[in-house]
Amino acid sequence: MKLLRCRICDELVRLRGESQSCQCGASKGRYLDDRDVEISGPCELYGVRSIDYFSGEDWSKKLFRIPHFHPTT
Ligand SMILES: [Zn+2]
Fold this sequence. Notes:
Elements: E1 2-6, E2 12-14, E3 20-21, E4 28-31, E5 37-40, E6 43-47, H1 50-53, E7 64-66
Antiparallel strand pairs: 1-2, 1-6, 3-4, 4-5, 6-7
The structure holds zinc ion (ZN).
Zinc ion binds next to loops.
């Protein structure tokens, strides 16, 4: 699954079908379909495997950066 990390408030936001924004409101994003996401604002895209996310352990150490070449504003 994919998450965005806002560079301003440093919050990690798990993306869903409807638009989600971080606590400061500068960054937001959503899933367009099962695979593609759209993000906007001063944020970076991260991924984590579902098995890690739901394992009950600290998944924040298992995040990997996803290059995102088509940010929308
Ligand atoms: Zn923010």
